[in-house]
Amino acid sequence: MATLMGSESPCTGGKRRHCTGNIVTKFTASKITGQAFSRGTQLPGGLLQERDKRAKWHGIPALLQRLHESSHPNSDLSQAHSFLKVLSSQLSMEAMSFVTEDRKTAQESTFPNTYTFDLFGGVDLLVEILMRPTLTMQKKKPNMNDDLVKDCLSVLYNCCICTEGVTKSLAARDDFVLFLFTLMTNKKTFLQTATLIEDILGVKKEMIHLEGIPNLSGLVQSFDQQQLANFCRILSVTISEPDVGNDDKHTLLAKNAQQKRIASPSRAEVNQVTLLNIPGFIERLCKLATRKVSEATGANFLQELEDWYTWLDNALVLDALMQMATEEAEQSSTESSDESSLATSPLRHRLPQSMKIVHEIMYKVEVLYVLCVLLMGRQRNQVHKMLAEFRLIPGLNNLFDKLIWRKYTASNHVVHGQNENCDCSPEISFKIQFLRLLQSFSDHHENKYLLLNSQELNELSAISMKANIPEVEALVNTDRSLVCDGKKGLLTRLLTVMKREPPDSSFRFWQARAVESFLRGATSYADQMFLLKRGLLEHILFCIIDSGCTSRDVLQSYFDLLGELMKFNIDAFKRFNKYVNTPEKFQTFLTQINSSLVDSNMLVRCITLSLDRFESQTEDVKVVEVLSECCLLSYMAKVENRLAFLFRLVNIINVQTLTQENVSCLNTSLVVLMLARRKAKLPFYLNALREKEYAEKYPGCLLNNFHNLLRFWQRHYLNKDKDSTCLENSSCIPFSYWKETVSVLLGSDRTSLCAIASYIDEPYMDLDKDLLED
């Protein structure tokens, strides 16, 4: 407030000094109470002029007064526009400093002009001017000058980014938000409108209903491809479930309670259905995602690019463009020492092609994000069918070498989450969104075989035939006209670049997740052998044991992938033993597993399940040979090692700390106990847990905790909305046996040797305490 009141001390400024303070105070109070003054037009012009210089208002209140007087319903608004231009020039400099100085916290002392503009009612006045045509009773609505509309929108956006609270106040006006969408029909004001809408929706407390937008279908169908790509930035806010974060408030316990309170389907899910009902929407997104750079550049490209850069207001984009241009110039200088060649091809001539590439990449990032969200929604099968029909995967395969992975891009920062707005370069964002899309596309869906080409599908058939096992039904049903073209399919291309990534590159996380999703679901021997033949297991082991990788995210993704690759596959365990051929290597491998069991427990589960199956196949000479030679299987065959894993799995989690990330520890401990129950050894394992408690001098601690975890398991997995097929497919244990085992463990009969209660002495019994209440 000191900036607005001038440099005098409130104690020495005299009677007039208090007047200025009163004006500002009353305006500020009016914004809270809705009473008294609301804008500068309610004050005498002479008073405003008198106080202007001392308060450093730079004439803004007086200009707003003139803007208001010249913008009455019957005026042609030309004079109003001239006043707005003067105001815009004063505010734009502050906005420019904001976007180029690391987006500091908006406050009045940093951006006094914008603050003053809002304080004296400028924001409300511009909203009123913009919406005036919708408020008239005349049949013929008055047309507003496009440049005036653009300037109004630009000033509002500047206020949003420079003055705290403006965006939220605009977001609270549902009528204004919906009105903004109607302005998108005008191509001349589209980008300014899209920018403002995106900013407003980002802070809006409640997600808007897309079906509430007037003629949404007609609006979207009227967009050209450039506009549709930009519109995807807005759509991403309306179809994504709120990012829940990783703090204590978002444990599985809290999520389950929240789901009970929130009506189903959610607003995001309703919006997804609304989009899918727009004719041609998905087809156009697929075309945008797969078009080549040469197809995207028309005669108006430079004008299009200018608008695009203005819209982004992000200095990182320019940095990326300049970096690309520099790299191209350096590459040319190494390829040719002809100085005359370089002289005739200066850097500025090379920049446009790089700009075209980044321009297209930025569009594709937004489109792929929307497609990815839709693929993870309730209409997943409908979306899958359309993406296959419109040949999204073959199109991306054709772009892989020339655009998606056309060169190495360093990415050593943290792994980026699904809804994270990071400041990474366009190329890094593009690669991550591409990998996330592949992960969503392949995960537990028969369309995953579209990632291969016809020759690779034939290879899978040949593997099944050689092993004398039937082909997977999904492979047989794959439409060969929709698979990848060329010498390599998309999955094979991904494996190639995956092996080239530096050890700690965050791309490794997403690459491993994408390949793992291809293997997830019911275990397919042919799928595993297809990847084993391409050296994937050796590559993973190198990363875990020999590469020096320290990223927990990357290691977790590699443990999970290794588990899916090796599960029930005797050839994989044989290959493992061939690579891990010294005690030192095996010890390093075990150290990595034990360093974070939350990260590696899926691999522990895979080894446990595989050992159990192999032990029942002793008539197979090959299996017997590997069982006797493989250090990993021999290690897990020792009951003391299985018990050690069980102790830690039960001890590192409790009901209050269960999340989507660590709930797998609970399921892995259950797998160990289910396999023990099959062999009538469940009492032995429960008694071992009891003895461990007493040895650690914490009687009742492990078993009470495990009892509570299993009670939570029942509520969580027996919910009608939960899909139990994932547990069943990944373990090859019927879900009915999961439920039965949990019921047995939770039995109240203290004479039962399979009930946890039988192993907790009375003084330490804590089973009646309900930790599961909301």
TrEMBL record:
Pfam families: DUF3689 (PF12463). One of its GO terms (cellular component) is Cul4A-RING E3 ubiquitin ligase complex. GO terms for biological process: ubiquitin-dependent protein catabolic process. GO terms for molecular function: phosphatase binding. InterPro entries: TRPC4AP (IPR022162). This is Short transient receptor potential channel 4-associated protein. The lineage of its organism: Eukaryota, Metazoa, Chordata, Craniata, Vertebrata.
